[in-house]
Amino acid sequence: MLSSLTAGREDGARIADRGEAMLVNAAAPSGVAPPMGQAEFILPATDKADTAPFWQATREKRLVVQRCDSCGKTRFPPRPHCGACRSDKLSWPEVSGFAKIFSHIVVYPPVLPAFAKYAPFPAVLVELAEGKHLRMFGNVIAKPGDTINAINPDSLYIGQPVRVHFEVLTDGVTLPRWLLQPEGAR
Amino acid sequence: MSVTTLIKDRTAIAGIGMAPYGRGIESSEEHLAGMAVKQALDDAGIDAAEVDGLVSYDMEVTALEEMASNMGLGDLRFIAHTSCGGGGSCAGVGLGAMAIVTGQADVVVAWRSRKRSSKESRWWMNQPSIVRDRQMWLRPHGVVRTADEIAFMARRYMHEYGATQDHFANVALAFRRHANLNPTAVMHEKKMTRESYHTSRYVADPLRLYDCCLETDGACALVLVSAERAKDLKQKPVYVHAAAQGISRDSSIMVQWYAEDMMRTQAVACAEGLWKHSDIRPKDIKVAEMYDAYTPEILFTLEGYGFCGRGEAGPFTDDGNIELGGRLPINTNGGSLSDAYLHGFNLVIEGVKQMRGTSTAQVQDADTCFVSGSDLVPTSAMVLRR
Is the per-residue pLDDT at B35 higher than 70? Predict the structure, then answer.
């Protein structure tokens, strides 16, 4: 399934890296976009000034958040200013990648074509070990290479420990996924 | 004069209009919008040329200037286009009231027109494949539809406060029963039972199909004038007692994903402004029209505006409490779940009908009504009285 996810990698990566609002579909002739919503992947733009360092880090298999260099407060998602002190001096510290499920759902059809072959599939919101205010969305897997629907959604629970795993979707985009951890993991 | 007396009871809704609600309606959104505005002006007995203020809220297809031309309105002196989707329903009324009280306008029209019944009109179907805004943290993971987002909040709420799907069913069933009384409700003839609720398909577990609002076509509109002027018009005036808008701190759309307290919705900021300006308290409200794109939103709104305490809204919906004849009847036209989905503006219209005494699920002796927009986006609310 990983191979199907990475099919079209070259086109996807090139377009994603240019950051243009074009549609990614390996099957489409160059320059011809499929109708809106019909793309094979839904990808984040990786070239936006305020968020590019996050995606650069995931490509390097590091999970980062933002930290205000004036008051020290960490934040996610990235913002140009610190809401606590309004400073725009910031850095991107790496976090442990340990987290707990804060909430979870199961997505049933109808969904976008990009996700149709997986539905129903679970999705999670996790709370990072570094703070209650640091939450990220994602999909859960039991082992690297799993598809996003491989886990029985009924087995998920709030507070369940997970750890980040990086899934390379295209040359430009590596998404964090959340690998289930044994009970009692940090 | 204290600030709290500025708009209180000094303006009134003098006319309402409803274009047909339904599915697969052929008329354009612009056409439907005009039908509703025309009917509202006729209802008030006010000439279109007298209109000098016009308000809409975002995701509206018909531009302010196009509406002005379509309806042959006079020279407009007050125009506003405010936030935010389902949160903006009461905002236009509040802005219009401010404009009239401060002399910026004499006759203000507000409206909403939507066509969402065709599958192609689902906004999430048109998701760009490269996400450039803050949705980049959600969409690539398959969290694409609003239902998915609300489901996360519903699950967390159930976990923290012990609410159950049976509480969500209370909401869906109450509003359907109200729609069954309302001949213009899209679901007027469709019955719902607790069993049919619990066996409806999942959209985003824990949310089922009957937890989600309708997708429909339609439009509605209202005319707002000074309280003084309203006394001389055709209809019984419905006074805008208080109105407010709000964005709570640590805000994000649709859910406060990144706030430490996720349940501190946009309603918190709005409620503070609303009740500060209102002599009527939550306990005095006889009927409520609350934004209900998804059943759990009713629970969040009940708590956000202080109709009950945090975590108490599930049991609050038990025993028919939110149905006609109950302690606080809610969404007496059927709401977004069973009347029509018009970004909550049909709830404003229903509030006016309740205060006129003309609802198809009329609450006896109702003289106060609470109306709210979605508190999961920048929001607005108001208190109406007769």
Answer: yes
3-state secondary structure of B6: coil
Positive or negative CA dihedral for B72, B74, B79, B84?
negative
The strand pair at B108-115 and B53-57 is best described as parallel
Domain spans, chain B: 3-118+214-385
| Cβ atoms < 10 Å from Cβ of B319 | 11
Question: Which residues of B are catalytically annotated?
Answer: 291, 341
B239, β-bridge pairs: B12, B385
Which pLDDT score is estimated for B25? 94
Do residue A102 and residue B156 have CB atoms under 8 angstroms apart? yes
Expressed in percent and rounded to 5, the helix, strand and coil fractions of chain B are 40, 20, 45
C-beta atoms of B125 and A112 within 8 A: yes
Phi, psi angle pair for B121, to nearest 5°: -85, -5
The single-letter code of the amino acid at B214 is: L
Fold assignment, B3-118+214-385: Peroxisomal Thiolase; Chain A, domain 1 (3.40.47)
Q: For residue B19, what pLDDT band results from cuts at 50, 70 and 90?
A: very high
What chain A holds in terms of domains, given with CATH numbers, is 2-180 (2.40.50.840)
Nearest CA in chain A to B160: A158
Tell me the nearest-neighbour CA distance from A95 into chain B, angstroms: 17
Q: Confidence class of residue B252 from pLDDT cuts 50, 70 and 90? A: confident
Tokens read off for B53: 């203020």
